[in-house]
Design a protein that fits this description.
Strand content: 5-15%
CATH superfamily of the largest domain: P-loop containing nucleotide triphosphate hydrolases
Largest sheet: 7 strands, mixed
Distance between the termini: 41 Å
Number of domains: 4
CATH architecture of the largest domain: 3-Layer(aba) Sandwich
Strand order of the largest sheet: 4-3-2-5-6-1-7
Radius of gyration: 28 Å
Helix content: 40-55%
């Protein structure tokens, strides 16, 4: 941030805003920028008043209107040039005081004339319309490995630990990416308390808890790989061809990092499993974005939510960002002008721009059940590298799914004829196959015995597959996908033959 801030100050920007929960780190970078430009830095807060950081002189003025009266005199001349940092001014702007808004505009005009600057610092910012074009946002990224390394060294020194091996240190810093310096310090300290050392697994665990508590992004354990997916051979081949594109050698080769993948298809056919397997195959951390939470907050918080998500993903990069059922988050962006003044449309546009222009290696895997709800601009090339359509599993894929479902629930696949079961559940999805087997387990458990093929076949007859309930929609979906999306599976063979494929494959459960 310091370089960008220095550039804005040199250019004479009168109003700047830094949005961050890391107040101390942000203030340190602002102070460094002022020192490099030989600007006099002042800081205001409602508890301390206005402080001249050079001389340590404090002028009590808890009311921001009083502070702006002092700034009138401070900004009256162009020498020396001053930078005034206003802490948590948003709390006063929330009260919609027209006098305060007018005072800020007046101060910014004077600051512009004489080369001074006003910087707003807080964890959020929602400006009134009168100030939206008066204040420029300055990006403040989460700390990278260098800054986190300073925090880690401080913990090691205070705890009097031995110097860490390079691989442990690198792993610990990688596990802390995506946290603020304070959160990372807490995670390192907790590791010291629990293990009397630095354990990257504890740091990663605390990061997962922290991000989940924030509610927008969640770290998901990627324990599956491409071999855990039944069928979908064309999709797996495509992913395998891009697994090495995040390496240093690929970068040296001049190969750009893949942007992402959009998977559309019928519910229950394995789209979410593929997203998890992608992270496992690439060897990258998996983040799950809840788009509903991004758009579920108050209108003024939507931009901040998206900014937080992007900062977290880019801090952890390289990583896989999984957005499940993305159509639920973006389906209302077209009509948002009638409900929220167009805020959702702006957030949607910002997200598309980030996907198009992002420089950090964040591989986005988005899944959608109803592609008709997605805006057309979301589907065009450049947002994603490719779009795949996942259809109902064929007979061979269903037999593979039966084997892993049976094994997952503690039984031997060899005790069941999965070819017969596959033929009996035509048009069933992977999720429905697992639900059928669980149904059979309940019936057999109630009778005090092990499940038999008869129990499974009876459960199949009691189940109406989704393909029958929405056959018209599925036909329309297939018609839409033809020529627009690539097939995820070749479906070259529709009937399984002996010997059965006993490769370990996970049930395709969405």
């Amino acid at each position: 941030m310091q370089n960008q801030l220095t550039t804005y100050l040199r250019a004479g920007y009168p109003g700047l805003a830094v949005i961050s929960s890391e107040e101390a780190r942000a203030e340190a970078e602002i102070a460094a920028a002022c020192t490099s430009l030989k600007r006099r830095l002042h800081a205001w807060s409602s508890t301390e008043g206005l402080i001249d950081t050079n001389e340590g002189r404090i002028t009590p003025c808890p009311d921001p209107l009083e502070a702006f009266q002092l700034l009138d005199r401070l900004f009256a001349t162009d020498s020396p040039r001053h930078v005034v940092l206003m802490r948590d001014l948003q709390l006063h702007l929330d009260q919609t005081d027209p006098m305060l808004v007018r005072r800020i505009k007046d101060i910014l005009r004077v600051a512009k004339s004489n080369g001074h600057s006003l910087i707003l610092l807080g964890c959020r910012l929602k400006l009134p319309a009168e100030l939206e074009h008066e204040i420029t946002h300055v990006d403040f990224s989460l700390p990278g490995p260098d800054k986190l390394g300073v925090v880690l060294d401080g913990i090691i020194k205070s705890a009097k630990l031995k110097t860490l091996r390079d691989e442990i240190r690198e792993s610990a810093l990688q596990s802390a990416l995506g946290l603020t310096t304070t959160e990372a310090e807490n995670a390192f300290a907790l590791s010291v308390v629990e293990t009397n050392g630095i354990d990257p697994r504890i740091v990663a665990r605390e990061k997962a808890r922290t991000l989940k508590r924030n509610g927008l992004v969640e770290v998901v354990s990627a324990t599956t790989g491409l071999d855990d997916i039944g069928g979908l051979g064309l999709l797996k081949d495509w992913l395998q061809g891009r697994g090495g594109a995040f390496s240093a050698s690929a970068k040296a080769y001049g190969l750009p990092a893949p942007k992402g993948l959009l998977i559309v298809g019928i519910p229950g056919t394995g789209k979410s499993l593929t997203a998890k397997a992608t992270a496992g195959a690439f060897g990258l951390p998996l983040l799950r974005l809840d788009m509903g939470c991004v758009f579920g907050g108050i209108v003024g918080q939507l931009e901040a939510n998206l900014r937080s998500v992007i900062q977290t993903a880019e801090a952890i990069a390289p990583c896989v960002l999984w957005i499940d059922e993305i159509e639920k988050g973006f389906s209302g962006s077209k009509s948002s002008g009638n409900t929220d003044g167009g805020t959702s449309s702006r957030v949607f546009g910002s997200f598309l721009s980030w996907m198009q222009e992002k420089e950090k290696p964040v591989f986005v895997v988005a899944t959608a059940n109803d592609v008709s709800k997605l805006p057309p601009e979301f589907l065009r090339k450049g947002r994603f590298d490719e779009m795949f359509f996942v259809d109902l599993p064929d007979a061979l894929e269903r037999a593979q799914i039966w084997e892993i479902v049976i094994k997952r629930h503690g039984r031997k696949p060899a005790d069941f004829d999965t070819v017969v079961l596959s033929r009996a559940c035509e048009q069933f999805t992977g999720a429905e196959i697992e639900a059928v087997f669980i149904d059979a387990l309940h019936e057999s458990y109630a009778d005090g015995r092990e499940p038999k093929a008869k129990d499974i076949l009876e459960a199949i007859t009691r189940t109406v597959p989704l393909a029958q309930l929405m056959d018209g929609q599925i036909a329309a979906f297939r018609h839409w996908a033809k020529g627009r999306a690539r097939e995820a599976a070749s479906h070259a063979a529709s009937t399984p033959t002996a010997p059965r494929n006993t490769r370990r494959i996970s049930s395709q459960v969405n």
